[in-house]
Write a structure and sequence with these properties.
The protein has 603 residues and is an alpha/beta fold. Helix content is 31%, strand content 22%. The strands form six sheets. Strands 3, 4, 5, 6, 7, 8, 9, 10, 14 and 15 form a ten-stranded mixed beta sheet that branches. An eight-stranded mixed beta sheet has the order 23-24-22-21-16-17-18-25, with helices on both faces. A three-stranded antiparallel beta sheet has the order 11-12-13.
């Protein structure tokens, strides 16, 4: 009896010791996700247990994280393929299975906070194995905040690529960089943020870097450059007829039937027939050191081919700006901007006779003013449905902008009424005035006195990948509302619109041939005075706009950009304006609020 009890006790303690010292099972990232990852209702249309089989192409991407021969994994992809979920699975794997210091980078601090609150926190909350290890930021554990969460053996820090302080003095083993094409060229004055982050991994021999992004412009896309030096793998499916493996390509898609033709035998098969087969990744550059994967929406189980076709048709109707978004986000490919070859003669020949001050299609007017040392130059632009623009008047007011009469003359331009051909009068609804010259204080003073008439001071900043209009949150030190314009972004859009040949396409630009409106040969030379070039800054390719030749006059190009910015600042509902004008309705006035009377009491 004593011997039996001794045997039972030994077995009990052996079991405990074995459970403590036995290493965890050898799981890949996809296997871990299939066992432990839970999808949250806030971020998934299919909440519950993660299933890699739902999108089979994800398995190899996830398991490439476990490929110790490859230090870097590149994912150049469209939207709607689950790339954010891939990153979350990698985070969950390292928190639970292979603890390490992790850095997750987003383009900005605000996006990093949003990712933490809306994606990471729900995953930790809903996945029991993670919830035990990474407590919520609302707990008393000071190691867990919105931007950083600690767990046994490591931590994950969320940072914005625009904030250099988040990249400094932090040893990192796992680097996850999301939407790298939206990263700024420099983190403050310290250089390329991605390079700064990579240096933080140098102390770890078993480091891993994962770069993810939808691409942007050809020649200036970080993710495309990284992909070109990778294995360049594409998801291939066999033709249901001949068995030839091939990627799903949008050009092979037939719009009338929503079927894709085999590149080998030419047979058409629908989406279900193609996707019912077992696919595989095939590398174009198999000897590369780093793994690289490309995905487009055609492989996605959450995006139907007919929806992709409809999106393309809609983008094609809207013009180059919408097509760029489609190519980047639906096809996962870089956009090669068109329009660099636009010549002034092409636009000069496009002019048409207005025979009126303002054509009937124009629904509202905006204006732009450029301040030079000896003059003001201005343009008034009309806008119609589909963001089509109409040149109304280009003019010059000669005189020193330091003199009051110059600005008085500008008042006569900006605050008069302009007549449509049908007799209705339009006023300029918004004006943008460049404040970047030698008369900044005078511009501020002029705009501040007329802000109730929507006259705004603007300043331009260069660089791509930014928001065109940055609205001020408060007045600046001079007391003026100062709008910041990403001028290169605006120029990209403007040149795309100028390249449109069909006046039925949204964004088309009309110009008058009427001699009194200022749109002569010199104007069009100025409108086409700049071209897009690729320069390098901090080792990264940067698209910039530069004058074609030294000394060229480019005020018309800048002014049309500012007038376009004025339209975006106003953000009008053109359809509603058209309905009101067509029906002769007067604009609705806001009801006058009665001032609340507060009794002071009775003595």
């Amino acid at each position: 009896m004593v011997q039996k009890r001794k045997s039972d006790t030994e077995s009990f303690f052996k079991g405990i010791i074995k459970s403590v010292i036995t290493p965890p099972p050898d799981l890949t990232v996809s296997e871990w996700a299939d066992m432990y990852r839970k999808l949250s209702s806030e971020s998934s249309s299919e909440p519950g247990q993660w299933r890699t089989s739902r999108a089979p192409y994800q398995k190899e991407i996830l398991d490439s994280i476990n490929d110790y021969d490859s230090e870097k994994v590149i994912i150049m992809s469209s939207a709607q393929v689950g790339k954010s979920e891939l990153l979350l699975n990698v985070v969950g794997y390292y928190i639970d299975f292979d603890p390490a210091p992790i850095l997750l980078m987003q383009p900005t601090v605000d996006l990093a906070k949003s990712f933490s609150k809306e994606r990471l926190a729900p995953m930790i909350r809903d996945s029991p194995t993670l919830r035990k290890k990474a407590s919520d930021e609302k707990s008393r554990d000071s190691g867990n905040t919105v931007m950083q969460k600690t767990f046994p053996g490591g931590y994950i820090a969320m940072v914005g690529a625009n904030a250099p302080s988040g990249l400094a003095s932090r040893p990192i083993r796992i680097l996850l960089a999301d939407e790298v094409d939206r990263f700024p060229i420099s983190a403050g004055t310290e250089g390329d943020p991605l390079s700064l982050a990579e240096k933080r991994t140098n102390n770890f021999q078993n480091r891993k870097k994962v770069f993810v992004s939808t691409p942007t412009n050809k020649g200036a896309s970080r993710i495309e450059t990284e992909f070109e030096f990778s294995t360049q793998e594409h998801w291939n499916l066999p033709c249901p007829s001949c068995g030839e493996y091939q990627p799903l390509r949008f050009p092979q898609l037939h719009f009338d039937s929503a079927c894709m033709a085999c590149k080998s035998c030419g047979t058409l098969h629908d989406e279900y027939e193609w996707k019912s087969s077992e696919g595989k990744w095939i590398a174009n550059n198999p000897n590369a050191k780093n793994r690289g994967f490309h995905l487009n929406e055609m492989v996605s189980p959450w995006r139907k081919w007919q929806e992709i076709i409809d999106s393309f048709k809609e983008a094609n109707k809207k013009g180059p700006e919408a097509l760029k978004v489609f190519v980047n986000t639906a096809l996962g490919e870089t956009w090669e901007p068109k329009g660099d070859g636009i010549e002034s003669e092409d636009l000069l020949d496009r002019r048409k006779q207005y025979d009126c001050e303002v054509p009937n299609d124009v629904l509202l007017l905006t204006a732009a003013v450029d301040v030079q040392d000896n003059r003001l130059e201005y343009e008034i632009v009309g806008w119609s449905i589909g963001k089509k623009s109409w040149g109304i008047k280009y003019g010059v007011i000669m005189g020193d902008p330091g003199q009051e009469f110059v600005w008085d003359s500008l008042d006569q331009v900006l605050f008069k009424e302009y007549s449509r051909k049908d007799g209705q009068n339009l006023k300029i609804m918004t004006t943008c005035i460049d404040s970047g010259g030698h008369h900044t204080k005078r511009v501020y003073s002029y705009c501040k006195e007329r802000e109730y008439q929507r006259v705004w001071a603007i300043k331009g900043v260069g660089g791509s990948g930014k928001t065109f209009i940055q609205r001020p949150k408060r007045r600046d030190d001079s007391g003026v509302w100062l709008f910041t314009l990403a001028v290169d972004v605006g120029k990209d859009a403007l040149v795309s619109r100028l390249s449109i040949q069909d006046d039925e396409v949204e964004g088309y630009c009309y110009f008058p041939i009427d001699t009194d409106k200022g749109y002569d040969a010199e104007y069009f030379k100025g409108l086409t005075a700049e071209h897009r070039v690729i320069r390098h800054k901090n080792g990264q390719p940067v698209i910039k706009w530069e004058k074609r030749r030294s000394g060229a006059r480019n005020e018309p190009f800048d002014l049309r950009n500012y007038a376009m910015a004025a339209f975006e600042i106003l953000n009008p509902q053109l359809e509603a304006i058209k309905e009101r004008i067509d029906t002769g309705q007067q604009p609705k006035k806001s009801p006058r609020k009665r001032r609340r009377m507060i009794s002071k009491g009775v003595t």
